[in-house]
Input
Amino acid sequence: MVTAISRAGFLGRRFNAEDSAIRPPWATPEAYFTEHCSRDMACAEACPEKIIFKGRSGFPEISFSGGECTFCAACVTACTADVLGPLLARDGSRRRPWNLRLNISDNCLSAKGVVCRVCPETCDARAIRFRHPAAHGKPIVDPGACSGCGACVAYCPAGAITLLPRRQYEPRIGAA
Output
């Protein structure tokens, strides 16, 4: 599979899809998004959590360092270029807001023997757990349960948690 690299990605030495920016929830595939986004940042202005910011290339990006996404869809409603949404899949079920994977680095305090249970305590989806409540070691992540809200990222005292885009199937825009 051939992946297109943006000019900014090339110059910034970001050659993998995993290095790409996290767009607001329910964003269309990257190529469509960057071609059609107006960059007016209406989505950022509408975000009550203030986690959407203007990225280096002027497009909206997500930063979980100051908070989490509540999936309120205010960004989708505010989007003037129609590059966010739809919220519902063809079968009527709610689409996942994005396809992210949780990564916990070796900086994890628990992995270093320090008692820390912040990540499972902040995870409403119960996607993060430990094998035994009193045991040390890296937390276990259930990727199917992770919503990608970013609460664990914002509250991790060691900065050991990141959410990264997965290589994903990008459905065609306008497909029936």
Notes: The longest helix spans residues 30-36. The first strand starts at residue 52 and ends at 54.
